[in-house]
Amino acid sequence: MAWGLTVPLDGVPLAEHPKVYRELADAGYTDLWSVEANGADGLTPLALAAAVEPRLRLGTAIVSSFTRGPALLAQSAAAMAAAAPGRFVIGIGASSNVIVQGWNGIPFDKPYSRTRDVVRFLRAAFTGERVDERYESFAVNGFRLGLVPETAPKIVVAALRERMLRMGAREADGVILNWVSAQDVRRIAAIVHEENPAAEIVARIMVCPSTDAAAVRRVVRSLITGYLTVPVYRAYQTWLGHADALAAMWDAWDAGDRKGAVAAVPDEVVDAVCVHGPPEVCKAKIAEFVDSGVTTPVLALLPIGVDVGDAVLSLAP
């Protein structure tokens, strides 16, 4: 069974990650999936892994369909695919207005169209053929990939609601989920597999192998408030049916009461999106995601009162 981990690991210097990657493979981890927000970029941690550990599959979860131009994104994905033949998956998604427009100064226009068009362009570029195409959201004139990987990387799409879920299953090789409960996955998996029964479903799952539930909930409440008040995630949670549970948080946030918003996050919301408890309990809860339809669980470790190295090994399959 696939058993992934989010990298880079908090508190571990990037220069020390190659040694860690070997230990992860020894412990039974199968996948490493990177994130790209305001820390390391989404490719450097994976490039380090490609150079030292051939047992691990490598994926981005995610790089934005906006913040790299289409040709540069194809070059980056092709280079990773050449460095890790048959082991690289390019996960792309629209990201959010905060990262795309607020931090990078790029208009966050038509995120569905942009992501779909990038998927279509990457498919064409990975063949090594010249691409001359006017897509709905951009045009590419005369691009030909100079480094064509022997095995084209799989493409998965970060999807929040039904339209993007169906597109990722239909036009890519699957989808990436975030901020979901095991129960949410059942509904999502039904939509994805109706479109494509073979589609991969990757899910990033926050996990902390700690018995201090109060400390975990305190940290995760702040994370929930920071993410699920962003418009795209607010719409997502409403679509999932969580508007009533999150209404008090949103009301406080909209009124400018940041502390009140954090305090208004119910314990049941925290416990639905963050797996915590003793390691064996955590692994059993992660298995519930798999039973609900996740094909690749990717642990996003929260080192709250735990040693990172010990925690990672305690959660190994």
Description:
It is a single chain. Helix 1 (17-27) links the parallel strand 1 and strand 2 (31-34). It is built from 14 helices and 12 strands. Helix 1 (17-27) crosses helix 2, helix 5 packs parallel to helix 6 and helix 7 (182-195) packs parallel to helix 13. It is 48% helix and 18% strand. It folds into 2 domains: 4-210 and 277-314, Luciferase-like domain (TIM Barrel, Alpha-Beta Barrel), CATH 3.20.20; 212-272, no CATH class. It has helices at residues 17-27, 44-52, 70-83, 97-103, 111-125, 162-171, 182-195, 213-228, 231-240, 243-254, 258-263, 267-273, 279-292, 308-314, and strands at residues 4-7, 31-34, 57-60, 63-64, 88-93, 131-134, 139-143, 154-158, 174-177, 200-208, 274-276, 296-301. By secondary structure, it is an alpha/beta fold.
